[in-house]
Amino acid sequence: MQSRIPPPARTGGRPRNAAADAAILESTRQALVELGWSKLTLGDVATRAGVAKTTLYRRWAGKSELVVDAVAELFDELELPDRGSLAADIEGVVLQFAALLGRPETKTALMAVVAESTSDEPLRERIRTSIVDRQKRLVLAGRKRAQERGELPPEPDPTAAGLTADLIFDVIAGAVVHRALVSAEPVDEDWARRFTLLLLGGLAAAAAQTW
Amino acid sequence: MQSRIPPPARTGGRPRNAAADAAILESTRQALVELGWSKLTLGDVATRAGVAKTTLYRRWAGKSELVVDAVAELFDELELPDRGSLAADIEGVVLQFAALLGRPETKTALMAVVAESTSDEPLRERIRTSIVDRQKRLVLAGRKRAQERGELPPEPDPTAAGLTADLIFDVIAGAVVHRALVSAEPVDEDWARRFTLLLLGGLAAAAAQTW
Amino acid sequence: MQSRIPPPARTGGRPRNAAADAAILESTRQALVELGWSKLTLGDVATRAGVAKTTLYRRWAGKSELVVDAVAELFDELELPDRGSLAADIEGVVLQFAALLGRPETKTALMAVVAESTSDEPLRERIRTSIVDRQKRLVLAGRKRAQERGELPPEPDPTAAGLTADLIFDVIAGAVVHRALVSAEPVDEDWARRFTLLLLGGLAAAAAQTW
Amino acid sequence: MQSRIPPPARTGGRPRNAAADAAILESTRQALVELGWSKLTLGDVATRAGVAKTTLYRRWAGKSELVVDAVAELFDELELPDRGSLAADIEGVVLQFAALLGRPETKTALMAVVAESTSDEPLRERIRTSIVDRQKRLVLAGRKRAQERGELPPEPDPTAAGLTADLIFDVIAGAVVHRALVSAEPVDEDWARRFTLLLLGGLAAAAAQTW
DNA sequence: AACTAAACGAGACGGTACGTCATGTCTTGCC
DNA sequence: GGCAAGACATGACGTACCGTCTCGTTTAGTT
């Protein structure tokens, strides 16, 4: 995944300061918390990072690209906890994801860049690769683990398996995001339990059908 | 819900031009389609509407408020079709909602104002009353109709009923939005059928438990 | 002479603040004294004048145009003193002109805008009308007065008269500017006397020839 | 006169590339013609000369110094032609000087560096030695030759001689510059003849006085 | 029919941020 | 040590919108 503007083919010249990247991304998250998306300015980010505006523009094409990168780093910490059962694993992921969305930089930035991406195809692509697909791995890993535990039967048809995984993913991610950001209600243990119950029940019912 | 700035108590003076409101809202939607949220400017909207900037500011407090109103009008057309069964009704709502989200002005505006609302409580309130609650009513109406048909048992506990309705609502709206805007995959009849199957199966399983 | 950007044909709208013009021009001269031409910035001028940068750009196209106007105001104070004889009048004008060129805002600005004008024809035209031609009037007025006094014969041939006036003008203005700005030597009473002697002697000799 | 930054005392290391100097000065003149003073940038000059910016800064302190050197080279070609009489010699110098000022790089650069020099004493000094004094020598040489021819009497008082030479120099250089750059009229043979007539007549008249 | 008070268009205004550009310095690796 | 390449901090550029303001001009509904 390449979202920063790459340095020119190295034929000479002073190399870019690697520390600046980290400082810029951290400052971006900080500024997002304090100012929100629409009041965040690249000049301000540069100042916080102790870096010139030109340095920032040399590496990122604009506000959206920078924010996507800054937020994407946060999604690296998501992982599938092993809580012993499929239901518990799902609850764990839901709560972990909700905790991430509860952080002000994430909640503000995520919706804003998605909004921008509705009229910017490359940006949508970058969001998908940098952010969204990291979560999809969790769904696949969770199913694999459940199958190893014998909680789920092996899926013989790979096409149907992919469709189901996509559906599950949209349901989980969509419900949690909607609950947290649109309904603005807490995603607590109780909600996670009820949601997991609904999801697993639905999957069982669906598995009984011909898809 | 009143989001426009109200005219002063009428003691005389020229009344506001009612046609201007419609022109402004329509121009706002048009501009959203062409420019997206971040490049939409109020000056541009005023020009398109053939109206002075002052006229616009006399009636709305800012960009977010204006866009919420402009988009809210689109949600007026949502209604619960009677397709004969609970499953068919849900599929109908899903497809209707997806069709609305397919329009560029809706998709852009919805995510953008939600993003702004993460750091603007009054705005979130306005979004809830103008937009979100219009959808939630469909869930409630759908359940009522299903109970009348005998497809669902009456819910004796109003608290549990509310919790369930909220959960269903977050799942439906969240999944459709995520599919349409983030995954950027089509919400077609097939997807709607598979999603409905999952949802109803989950509800049945959940109803068998003590919530 | 029109060097400011004119306001649009008045059909409505808030009128320009006339006081701002004076404040801007005065601030420009002040900044020229302190900073010199190349370090003068329009943002700084705007700040000094207590005016927004946009106001400044609404009225002038750029640095050169602004400085020409600012300096041109200084040339309004030049006038032909009546000192009783042609020689004394010339000496008076020379000293007056030298005093003007001695002011730091004039000396810096004049050469700089002339330099810019070498690759900017409209600017040269503006300099000529706003600044240079004001001085040429002094030559014509001086000759007229000398003719009334009987010190010079009436000039029957208008073409030759024009040529002579242009030549005199280039000699006077050029010599004073060169002495003051390039040689950087004082234009004092002694120099003025010697220069006038040379000029009048030359004119008398030239008048004896067929031009 | 040394206006380039001298290389460090030679203790070893790679010597400077002498060809680069010529390329830089030539590129400077070229860029002056195309861009004018204010739009000329050192980075652009370096690129044209096929040289790194650092090389340029290693040798010159800034834009003014570089341009003075670039233009000074042009003044090397000035010389006093022997046309047989004082009047003809003066006309020849005037035309030669005018031809130099007619070149766009000269006219632009000369005024610009003089403007900068009004607030930069070392720069003025450099201009005087590199450029102005080259012209003044022509005045002195011309007088010497005229005295040898017997057209002018020997000047017994060296102080008065210096004063007169300075005055003549300011008058010639000033008038030609003003005619060419400010009035923007051609300095042709006719003008040169009329100007010389005026000057020589003035000198004769002045010589008749006690200075 | 005249009065009155607000709406309206136009556009100036003080601000703030934009994204670009030039300056003069620095760092790196090759000659 | 010179040199090409290019990153860097700095700071001005000229533009675009912001939201407010000041005009002169409608446009009702009173009186």
From TrEMBL, chains A, B, C, D:
<feature type="domain" description="HTH tetR-type">
    <location>
        <begin position="18"/>
        <end position="78"/>
    </location>
</feature>
<dbReference type="InterPro" id="IPR001647">
    <property type="entry name" value="HTH_TetR"/>
</dbReference>
<feature type="DNA-binding region" description="H-T-H motif">
    <location>
        <begin position="41"/>
        <end position="60"/>
    </location>
</feature>
<protein>
    <submittedName>
        <fullName>TetR/AcrR family transcriptional regulator</fullName>
    </submittedName>
</protein>
<dbReference type="InterPro" id="IPR011075">
    <property type="entry name" value="TetR_C"/>
</dbReference>
<keyword id="KW-0804">Transcription</keyword>
<dbReference type="Pfam" id="PF16859">
    <property type="entry name" value="TetR_C_11"/>
</dbReference>
<dbReference type="InterPro" id="IPR036271">
    <property type="entry name" value="Tet_transcr_reg_TetR-rel_C_sf"/>
</dbReference>
<dbReference type="InterPro" id="IPR050109">
    <property type="entry name" value="HTH-type_TetR-like_transc_reg"/>
</dbReference>
<keyword id="KW-0238">DNA-binding</keyword>
<dbReference type="InterPro" id="IPR009057">
    <property type="entry name" value="Homeodomain-like_sf"/>
</dbReference>
<dbReference type="Pfam" id="PF00440">
    <property type="entry name" value="TetR_N"/>
</dbReference>
<keyword id="KW-0805">Transcription regulation</keyword>
